[in-house]
Each structure stands twice: as structure tokens, then as C-alpha cells.
Amino acid sequence: MMFSIAAINDTDSRNLWQPLAPTKEAQEFRLSQLYHDGLLRLQAKDYEKARELLESVLQDPLTSNAQVENSASGGHLSQLRFLALKNLGMVFVQQGPTYYESALRCYLQAVDIDGKDSVLWNQLGTLSCSMGSLSISRWAFEQGLVCSPNNWNCMEKLLEVLISIGDEVACLSVSKLILEHWPSHSRALHVKKTIEESEPIPFTPRGIDKLQPKHARLKFPEKRKASDGELDNTTASKKLKQKIEVQLSEASWIALACELLEILQKSGDVRVSIQLSSSSAKVTSSIEMKEFACKPGGTGIPVVDHSSTNDKEGAVLEEQPQERRSSRLERLRTRKPGKEELEFSTNKDLAKVVKQYLVPYLVSRVSTINCEQNSKVSLDCSEEASNLLDSESADVIAFVQSTYNNCGAYHVSHLLLEKIANRGILYQDTIVKILDLEKSTRLWGQERTPECSLFLSELYYDIGLLSSETSKKSSLMSEASYHLCKIIEYVAMEFPFHITGMDEKEHCNMTDVSEKNHNTVMDNNFLSNYSHCFWIRFFWLSAHLSQLEGDEVKAQRELSVVSSLFMDKDKMNCPPVSICLPHCKATKKLSIDRVLHEINLIEVNYLLKKSVSDMLEKNMHAECVDLLAPLLLSVNDVHFDVLCASGHEGSGFISIELSALDVLIKSCELVEQMYVDVFLGCHRRKLQILLARAGLEGSSTDNHAFSFSESQSNESLWLQWNHSVAEEVKAISQSASKIKSTINPIDFINKVPMEIIGDIQCLLLTLMCNIANLYFSKKSSGIGVPDSIELTERCYFVDAAIAFCKLQHLNFNAPIKSQTELVVAIHDILAEFGICCARGTDEAEEGTFLKLAIKHLLTLDMKLKSNIHSPKKGQETKFDLHTSSKDQFTESEKLSHDSPIPGSPNVSQQSHVLDNDLDKKARDAANTSENVSVERLSSESIPSSLDKENLGKSNTNVGYGSDSTHSEREIENNHIIECSDELAEDEREELELGIDNALDQCFYCLYGLNLRSDSSCEDDLVTHKNTSQGDYQTKEQCADVFQYILPYAKASSRTGLVKIRRVLRTIRKHFSQPPDDVLAANAIDKFLDDPELCEDKLLEEAESNGFLDSTMKVMFSENSFGKLQNTSSVESSDPYVEVYCNLYYLLAQSEEMSATDKWAGFVLTNEGEEFVEQNANLFKYDLLYNPMRFESWQKLANLYDEEVDLLLNDGSKQINVLGWRRNSNLPQRVEASRRRSRRCLLMTLALAKTASQQGEIHELLALVYYDGLQNVVPFYDQRSIIPLKGAEWKIFCENALSQFKKALKHKEDWSHPFYVGKLCEKLGYSHDIVFSYYTKAIALNPSAVDPFYRMHASRLKLLCKCGKQDEEALKVVAAHSFVQSTKESVMNIFSGLGCENSKSSMYVEDGISCTNSKLVGLHQFEKIWNLLYSDCLSALETCVEGDLKHFHKARYMISQGLYQRGGPGDLEKAKEELSFCFKSSRSSFTINMWEIDSMVKKGRRKTQGPCGNRRILEVHLAESSRKFITCIRKYTLFYLKLLEETGDISTLDRAYIFLRADKRPPQSELLWIYHEEEAAMILTKAKWSTILKQSN
């Protein structure tokens, strides 16, 4: 489809037109048309034409490159390619078995494009089964079920394939799966019954061996039979007499070397004919299969790169062993239902169990291995080793074929050594055969290439390191030197004139390894003949041989050359990151980090001998850290050849490095400001070295157990080094505690390096896995382990678990859930091995981990509760004050990441402990744990340094110093970042439940104490193998438990103490009260109830300096008070004094002390009285031992004040005045509790330290005094029984007034001047003073209705009291007018009256009568009074508007004011105003009043008044129940009086019926308690009116 474009009027260039290329859309259309034509040919069964069309589609560049493109068209072409491959595979299948291989290749490429087509998987499985590739078939059908779980074809065919393979367990699972969907499936029933046959016949096939695969659409090949035809045709040919035929047992280099070595020893140099065995042929066919899937076939089909699907390829293209597994049936029959096989197998991998528990809780690190960057330069060593292993058979076969026409065994041996040196070989225990072959052919006459000599030298050096015999080791090292010398000889012969002087531009000094050791440099041409990798290997090996000879100077020079070569980017297009040496065991790879570390260790050795000791003597610890840290912490791996070099003599790099690390650790501890990153980095490095030296698997990146001697096992190595490892683990645990206790929490953001902590945790995990596999697995398998060794290993395991847990606590952003789960996981691991109560190393008592777990769980609970409800600054550090630095588990505060020091390691070691076969769920859980903690962080306070999605990976790098720019406020906010976010209710409950369960199990295992009060939950607690059976029947046991939990109980808030409340209750059973000798002289009760004690005198002296001492001497005798001050004397007199000093206070904090939460009237009962007394006793007992405790005095005062409040409130509702007066106990309790509350507050005031505390106590004391002045029920009925305003009443008023004024000085709260005004009014102070206090209260809180109401109600009372002629009173009332215009009008009238008075005085002097002037004055005063009266009523009306309509006090005052004014209609208005409290829509008389609460209403309606916006008022003081009942009584009597005077007989009648029927004390008392004549008269009228109405 081609076209051209030209201008219309262009006639000259017509012949020069060039056709344009077809568009991409046109090409796609053409391909689609070809594909469509191919389908039509396929439908017509024209397979050749269909194949041609479909192959042309696939060969087109558009479809072959479709997978690379990301555009929409690329996706369309990729789908077209998929369909073409799928249908081309069908074409090949239809063409017959000879094309099956091509069909298989098409299907494999198709599923690589789209693996979600179950039909395609079915076709692939059917085809591969027909070809005999059962592994591919199984994989295909399984993938088909993944895509479509209900696919019958895949399910039934998979069952038959599994029968053919012989996988009994999988076969049984598939049959059960089929029966779940189709219970009557005959084939599945038969298979299941056959496998699960319980009574097999002896000596006959059983289980799956009795089954044969059969399926209508599957073809199963017969078992392979050996035949002579399969052997190579050349084996049947006649062999020459001078040629020896060799039959290789396997296609491997070692096998070939062994055969050649045997020929040389027996027959000498004869021609060799090497043949492959049948097993080698199988391997060959497997290799060909691989190549077949990876190379394009003759059909020209484009090839898909499968490098990204190596795992899949391994499963698809390699045949797995077809072994019978009938033995698995025994486990199926014997395992318990619902349990994992792992739990019941005696051969289970205990290391895997440990990893599954702990891997999810590894602390995330910032730095990870950047494999992508490294792979740009060279292959990873593991990948290279895998490639060598995979291609070894093919290479051997190719080598055998290439050397068919050889010149003899020496010739083949020489070629073999050269081939191995150039190609590479994996280390094996039999690799020494290569060296034996080398020695046998060394004198053949053919010179070895430098590459081969270097390979052999490395091999000799590596095996020599592993040798434990000194003579043998020396001999092998000599051989290594010999081959290095051969390289020098070869170079000298090849390039005799290339030794020149040093070029100034050259930065790489290449040192000659001859005996003269003179400096030489090779020019570019010579260097280019051999790769940099070659010279790196050469000089590195030469340096190590020099070091073995004791020449460290030469070794350092040669290592410097290696370093220069590694970093010489001018001479190398791409410098290698590492050089792999797969043929070595001790040295797997060479890297720049390794070389620099070796150079650094030589320098460290020099510094230790010369400079460091002098620096330590001069206390130059910071300088020592700066000097040694970059040299020691610049490497991540432990190099086994260095370990071997230090070997059995105990000298070498390892001893040097360990000594230097000890010096560095000591300097970090002694430096003024600890370098946490260096400190932890040293411990990480030291533990890593010790674990590697002990031969532990996973301690280095090689990730395999390493035996340093041919005769030394891993177990013997561990026994040799386990003590040193245990000491280091203990040091790490103590260091974690020290870091938490010595560093300021604000500095944690720049101090704690998470990547190092994670590395140490990985190493500890390696240690625990090793102990589990070496010792715990033996015990579970019945293999005897000496008791002493078992006990020691148990201690080591517990220590490692504790250190692992403590390190997680340095991650201050770890979620509470994660921390709790880690404690539970470690507890479960220890319980799994029966050591959850075991002691740690050097611990005298059992349960080391459980004690620490309980401490930390209590801390987590305190953090959760306190931070959710009331997070406070400094709460975490308070806990530190009560814990030891050794075993401190402080509250988690803030996650911080710190980059390592210059030259320190920056590569994570977490991958070392993760096996390739580790369950993926464990890794996912680890990622989930990290994501959860990141989500909790959000972005509250730290801008950009902590990324919510990538915690710690974007953190600002910090060296020794602090570069942080975060403000103090941001850091403080992050201390509570975990719990300051609002948690959902269900999430919070889940966290609390998790902590509860963990605590209960820990207490149960450690002390045998079941904390669960609900007996139904007892079964949830698991009795472990070594669970304690302690029942706490003695004081000694209880005292021990209390001593243990005391530091953490002190640090906990009340919510935290609830967790150990049951423990405290259990302990109190043995310490119910203080000893009798202490109770005999109960000074607290004497102080609280002494009638001769003068409170007024105490109140006057309460804030004086000597008050406290004088009061204590009054309470206690001088001797006993002296003992209380001298703690040691008290301790000597009673061994349990610390229990007595703390138990009662902690119990009082944890118990439910408030009687308000009980039912109404609870305190009026004997039970309520006992409840209050028991709670008060807890504080009294505590004060006997701690009389100076501020909190106990304050809480005891609050307890008594609450009792008074409940007695009066509940008593007013449930007991009438007569009943109250007849029950002498209740009034006595009220008076006693008031007195005790006052005296407790006096002591609290004396102990108050801060101004805020003093102000609070002054307010409480004033309220207690004020409460005694109230004229309320049930003490008074406001009519016949009223308080006497005598001297005692006046003293109470003055005391309350004094305390409110003092409270006002400490804090300007509106309630203080409000109460001062009320007290001044009671004491008869001038009204101007009273109103000024009300005005101040209103100014402090303009929205409060209470002072506003009180102001204008008092003004109204004053107007009613003073009359209309009291000018001074009128002026005072006018000065505080509600409406400003009223005040101005009144002032104008008073001004006019002043003028009139002056005129009247003139008239009097002139003798003129002033009668008219007096009449005018009286009229004006009355006008003023009316104006002010209306102003007061208007102000009070504001108090009942909108949401304040139930503010009944204002309604009552308005009604009283209208009644007192007595104007026209005022009586009716008064009744209507008050009727709001006694009317409803259903009844003309009822009690429609509500207690006034203090809840602030939102969205209040704003009403407009005559003066603009009226004041918006809210209730800020709640009304007590006793005050409310009193108001009901007053209002009812007044309302009945209004009804009588207005003649509302019907309402009076309804009131009579209502009051007679209502038996509640507040209403029924109206008939019988007050002035009976008045009440009877009013109600009798109502009664007679009712009778008259009935008669009419």
C-alpha cells in the first residue's frame, strides 16, 4: 500500500517522485490479514499453507519486537503474536509426532506471553505427556488449575500424570479436590481408596504402585529400557591395540581427571579413547532439551528470551527424578488432623522453625545490595557457579569429542588442565585430583600458559589453607609459589624489553614478585596482553604468600597494586566489582572492599603496636575512634582464607581485628558522647567474625558452613568458639540497654542506625538456628546430648533471643502490635524447645526472658493507654528512672536512621540467613510489618526525611555529628507518633487483647499465676514443658514477685497498673494490712478525726515554712517520725517494709475507686460505706509509711469529697428530710467526710510544690468550705429547718472566701470571682464590691450564664429589698445595667434631680414652698426604679432563651420579680413564666424540670434583641442533685401560691391529684413537711373545688 504526494502545479518534478514507505497501521493490517488467512487454511486442513502463513506473521519484525514496545499498538501486536504461536502449535500437532518438538516450542513461547489461558495450558500438558515429558505436563496442568480452578480437563489429566510420576501425596490431594466438586467421581474415588488402603497384603504392591495411568486423551510412554542401540556406535568398532578405551561414569571434569590419572599411573603415555556411559547420555539429552528450547529451530520461528523466567524454565525443561513415594503414606495415616506435618515430624528442620517465627520481625535496613549495578560489570558469583554447573556436562562432552585424535594421555591431561583453567570449575572435595594430575604431567615438556599457572597456584594456596598439617601446608604453599614464579618466568621470556622506568602519568605501580623485589612497571601493550583480572589475581596471591613469609611491607605494596588495578578506569573499559574464584573454597571472590580491608588490617596492626596504646593512656578516646573506625568497619564479609591464615596458632588478621575491635568498643564507651553507629558496628563485626570462626552457616555472604580443617567438624568448631560467641551476645544485649539509658531521646533521630541493628539480628538468628540444628534436633530425635552441654546451649539460645528482642526495641517506630507479636513469637520458640523458663548465661534465677518480656509488655500497655488518652511529654523518660541500665526496656519513642561512618559497611547482611527454600509467607510478613510501621508514621512532623512509603530509605545521611534540622517541637511530637494517631476502637481493643494474652501467658509460665479472673478462659493458657507451678502460698513468694514488678509498676499509669491488678490483689492476700504495731498508733486516723485539732489554726499556718514539720510531729511521735525519715532503720525492723511502702498505693491506683460508677444510692447502703472505707484504708495504709506522699493525701481528699457529694445527692432523691433527720448515721458520715476531706486538703496544700498545684488545692478547699454553707436538702427544708448563720457559719464563709481569693491569685478563672461575689453577698459586703466581682467573672468568661444570671438576680433582689427611694442602691444597680441605654437614661434622670434639688434649696432660702418639687422627685425615683427593674427582668429573660429554656433558676427569679412588682398583669405573667416548669403537652400539672448540666451546646440560635445581638450564653457550672431537688420544692410551693391567687382552680385540682399520687420524696414531702397549715389550706381549696364540680 504505497502512495506519493506532490503539488498540483508541480510538473517539473513529476519524474522524480519517490514512493513513501507503508505506515505502521498498514503493516499491522497486512499482518492481521495474513493471520486470518492462516486460520482459514487451518480450518480447511491445509496445514502446510497454514504453517507458512503463521510463520510469516511471527517472522515479521513488527511482531518480533512487539514485546519491547509499551504502546497500545505494541499490546495489539503482542496479542497477535500470542494467537499466531498458539495456532501454529496446533498446526504442528496436526502434522504428526515428528513436529511435536516444534509444537512444544510454540506453546512454551505462547505461555510466556500470556499465562492466563487455561486452554493453552491444557494443550501444552497433553502434548508434553505424549512426548514423555511428565514434569512439563504436570507443571502445565497445575498452571491451568491456577488460571481456572474448576477446569475438569486439567484436574483429571493432572491426576493421571501424578499417577504416572508416582507422587502419592499430590495424587491424593488432587483426588480429594475432584471429590469436593464431584463427590461421585468414580476414578477419584478409586484412586483415593487405593492410596488410603489400611490393610495391605504383604509382599504386594501397595498404594499408588497398584495404579496405572489411563485417560482417553493422554498417551503415556512405556518405561525406558536399556538397549545396546542407545550406546555410541563407536563403541562397537574395533579398537586399535595402542589406544586405551575409557568409559566415563559421568560427564564431569573430576571424573575425566581421575581416569586420566589412573591411565598415567598404570599405562603411561598411550592414546586414549573416551566413551560416555548411558547415564551421561541421559544428561546429554537433558542438555539438548534445554538448548532446543532456547535456540531457534529450522522452522524459522523467532525465539523468546527465557532469561527472565529461570525458575519456570527449571520446572519446565528439566525432567525430575521419577521416584516412587509410597513411604509418604505412613505420614498421612499417622499425622493428627488440623496440624502441620512440621510439628509432628521427628526429622523437622528446627532452623526453619526458628526462621519462620523471627524473620518477619527483623528490623528493616536503609541500605540493600544493589545487584543491578553490580551485574552491569560482572556476573554474580552464584550465577557464575550455576552456569558452570549447568554447562559442565556439555563442556566435557565437547572436550572429549575435540580430543578424539589425541597424541596420548599426557597430551589430553595438558589440554584438560588448560581447558579447566580457562573455563573454570566448581570446588569439590575431590578437586585435589586436578593437582595430582598436574604433578604427574609437570615434566611432560609442554609449558603451561600463565592463566593455567595462576589457576594451579590459586588451587594449591586454597587447599594449603585448609590443611591442618604444618608440613603439608608448607609444601602446598611452596607449590603455589612455584607456579607464580613460572608466570614471572614466562613474562620475562615473552617481554624481555618491556621493563622500563615509571611513567609520570601512570598511577598503577606493578611490583615484581622476584627475589630482588625492585619496582617495575609494564607498558600499555604488555598490560593489554593479559586482563586486569589476571594481574589482580596474581598480585593478590603474591601478597598473601609474602604475608605468610612474614614480609608485611611487601604484602602491603602488592595489595596497593591490586587496589590500583581495581580502580584503574583508564585501562579498563569497565572495572570489575568482584572477581569470582569458583575453584576455591576459602576464597570465593576478590573485591576492592576485601583488598582495602586487608590493607587496613596491616595498618591497624601497625597502629596497635605504635600509636593506640599511647592514645588510650592519654584518654584520647574520641581520636582513637576517629582513627580506627574507618579502618575496621569498611568491610561486610568475613573472609575464610583470613580465618584459615590465623588458624590454629591463634595469630593473624583475626586476632588483630578482634583486638582492635575491643579497643574501639572500649573507646566508644568511654568517649564523652557515644558514637552509637560505631559502637553497634563494632559489635556487629565482632559477632560476625566469631560466628564465621565457629563455622556457622549464614555468617557470611558465602552462606554455607565452613570447616577450617579437614578433620574438624562444625560441632567441634562450635564447641571451641561457643563461649566467645556467648560473651559477645551478652555484650550486645547489655549494649542495647546502655544505649537506651545513656542517650537523650531527642538525639535518637541521629544516633541509632537501623541497618546495623538489622544485621546484628540476622547474625543472632543464624546463631539460634545453629543451636537448634546442632543440639535441639538431636534431643528431639532421641540422640543423647550431655546434660552440661545441653544446659549451656540452652542458656546461649535464651541469651540470643533476649538480644534479638532488645535490638528491636531500638527501633522506636516499631508498632506496638509488632513488638507484642515478637515477644509472643520468642516465647513460642522457647516453649517449642521446652526452655521458656530457662535462665540466661551467668543468671542465678530461672525465667530470664519471661521477666524481661513482662517488663516490656507492661511498658507497651502503658504507652498504648497513656498516649491514646493523655500523651505527656517526658512520659517515656520517667520510666527510665525506675529501671536498671542492665535490663532496661524503655518505652519506644522514635525511629531514627543513621548512615554509617566514612568507610563503614553499607550493605545489608539479611540475605545471609534467608534460605532459598524459606517460605515466602515469612518474607511477606516481614514486608507487611515494615509497611504497617511506615503507615503509622504518616508525615506528621518530619518533612521529607522519613518517607511514608520507603521508611528509612530516604533518610538524610548523618555521620558522627548531628546534621538534623528538625526542631525540638517536631522531635517531641514524634516521641508519641505511634499512639498519637487516633486508633480505631477495634484496632485498639485488638492491641490491648494481644498484650493481655501475652502477659497472662508470661505470668503463668514464670510464676504459675493465672491472671484471668474468668474461669472459662483458663483453657486458653498453655501449660508449657517447664511452666512454673508456684502457687504463692507464702509471704516470701509474694514479696519476690512484688520486688520484681515494682520498678515497672511505679512507672506505669493507672491504665498500665490494671494489667497487674490481679497480681497485686494476690499479693495483698498475704499483706492485707500493715503490722499490728504500726496500726496500733494509727497517726493518720488520729489526725483526720481528732476533735481537739484546730483546723482554723492549721489553715492559717498551711503555707508557712514550718507547717509541714510541725504537723508531722503532731501526727507522729518524734521517734516514729524519725524512723520514717530514716529508711534503713525501718527496713531492718521489717523484711517486707518495701512491700508495705508501695503495695497499697499501687493497689489504690489500679482499683476502681469511684463509687459514682455504682448504682444510685450505693453509698447510702452498708455495702457502699464499706466500699469507701476499704478504698480509704489503702491510702491511709500508704500514708502510714509515706506521710509525705502528695498524691495519696490528694486522692484521699477526693475520695471523701466524692462520698459527701453522693450521700447528699442520692439522699436528696431517696430520703426525705424527716427520714434524714431520723437516721443519725448519714449526717454523721457527711460531717466526718467533710472534716477528713478538709484536713487531707490542708496536708496536700502543705506538700504542694508548684504554683498550679497550690492553686488547685486552694480551689478544692474553698469548695469544701462553701459546700457546708448550702441551704439544701436533705439537711434543710428551706422553711422550718434552715442553717443558723452564727459564728461557725461565718467562719466557714470567711475560710471559703479566703481560699477562693488565693486560688484567684494563682489562676484567673471566672469561677473564682463568681464564688467570691456570692460569699461577699452572704457576708453582707457592700453591693458595689459584690457586683464588681460578678463583673470580673463575666469579663473572664463572657459566654458563661452563671455569673451573668447571678449579677442580675442580685440586682433584682436589691431593688426589691431597698425600695424605690434608696438613691445609693439605685445608683449601684444602674451602674451594672444590662442595657446601656437604661444606664444612660437613669444617669440623666439623676442629673436632672440634682438640678431640681439645687433649685429647691434656693426656694427654701427665699421662703417659697417646695412641695411640688418633692412630688416631682418621688415620681422620678419611681421611674428610675421601674426602668432598672425592667432592665433586670430583660437580662434574666436572656438566660431562658434558646438552648437555655430549661435554665429554671432564671424563670423562677423572673416569676418572683413579676410577683414582687405587682403591676397590672404581673401576677398572671408570673404564673405563666413559672408554668413552663409545671406544664407539658399531656398534663396541666407535672414536674417539667431538668437538672442543669454543663455541656456546651453547639450551633446555638442567635436571637435579635432591642439592643442588637443579645449575649450568647452557655451553662458552665453543673447543678447538683440536691440543689435541683431543693429548687423543685421551692418552685412548687410558689407555683401553688400563684395558682391560688390567680384563681386557677382546675390546675390546683390537677396539682392535688398529682402530688397525692407521686410518692417520690421530693414531691410527697410538700404535703407533710413544710408549714402544714399553709399547704393544707391551699390543697383543701382545691379539694373542695373538685367536690363542687362533681356535684354540679
Would you kindly provide a brief summary of this structure?
62% of the residues lie in helices and 2% in strands. It is built from 70 helices and nine strands.
Provide an overview of this structure.
A 3-stranded antiparallel β-sheet has the order 3-5-4. It has a two-stranded parallel ribbon with strand order 1-2. About 20% of the residues have low confidence. The N and C termini lie far apart (117 Å). It has 1592 residues and is mainly α. The chain has 70 helices and 9 strands.
Salient structural properties:
1592 residues; mainly alpha; 3-stranded antiparallel β-sheet; two-stranded parallel sheet
User: Strand percentage, roughly?
Assistant: under 5%
**Ends apart, CA distance between termini:** 117 Å
Query: Rg from C-alpha positions?
Result: 49 Å
How much helicity do the residues have?
A: 55-70%
Shape: elongated
What is the mean pLDDT? 74
Largest sheet: 3 strands, antiparallel
Low-confidence stretches: 68-72, 223-241, 281-346, 365-379, 497-526, 645-652, 702-711, 870-981, 1013-1018, 1126-1132, 1402-1409, 1496-1509, ...
> Structural class, please?
mainly alpha
Spatial arrangement of strands, main beta sheet: 3-5-4
Number of helical segments with 4 or more residues? 70
Count of DSSP strands: 9
Could you give the topology of this structure?
Elements: H1 24-43, H2 47-59, H3 61-64, H4 72-94, H5 100-113, H6 118-130, H7 134-147, H8 152-165, H9 168-181, H10 186-195, E1 243-248, H11 253-266, E2 271-276, H12 278-294, H13 310-317, H14 328-334, H15 341-344, H16 350-358, H17 371-375, H18 381-402, H19 409-423, H20 432-441, H21 450-466, H22 470-494, E3 499-500, E4 510-511, E5 519-522, H23 524-529, H24 532-548, H25 552-567, E6 578-580, E7 589-591, H26 592-610, H27 612-617, H28 621-632, H29 640-646, H30 653-670, H31 676-693, H32 714-742, H33 748-751, H34 754-780, H35 787-809, H36 816-832, H37 848-869, H38 875-880, H39 920-937, H40 968-975, H41 977-980, H42 985-1007, H43 1035-1051, H44 1054-1057, H45 1061-1068, H46 1076-1080, H47 1083-1089, H48 1095-1101, H49 1107-1115, H50 1118-1125, H51 1127-1133, H52 1137-1150, H53 1166-1185, H54 1190-1214, H55 1217-1222, H56 1225-1247, H57 1251-1267, H58 1287-1306, H59 1311-1322, H60 1327-1340, H61 1345-1362, H62 1367-1375, H63 1380-1406, H64 1411-1438, H65 1448-1461, H66 1466-1475, E8 1504-1505, E9 1508-1509, H67 1521-1542, H68 1545-1557, H69 1561-1568, H70 1572-1591
Parallel strand pairs: 1-2
Antiparallel strand pairs: 3-5, 4-5, 6-7, 8-9
Helix pairs in contact: 1-2, 1-4, 2-4, 4-5, 5-6, 6-7, 6-8, 7-8, 8-9, 9-10, 11-19, 11-20, 12-18, 16-34, 16-36, 19-20, 19-21, 21-22, 21-24, 24-25, 25-26, 26-30, 28-30, 30-31, 31-32, 31-34, 32-35, 34-35, 35-36, 36-37, 36-42, 37-42, 37-43, 43-52, 45-52, 52-53, 53-54, 54-56, 54-67, 56-57, ...
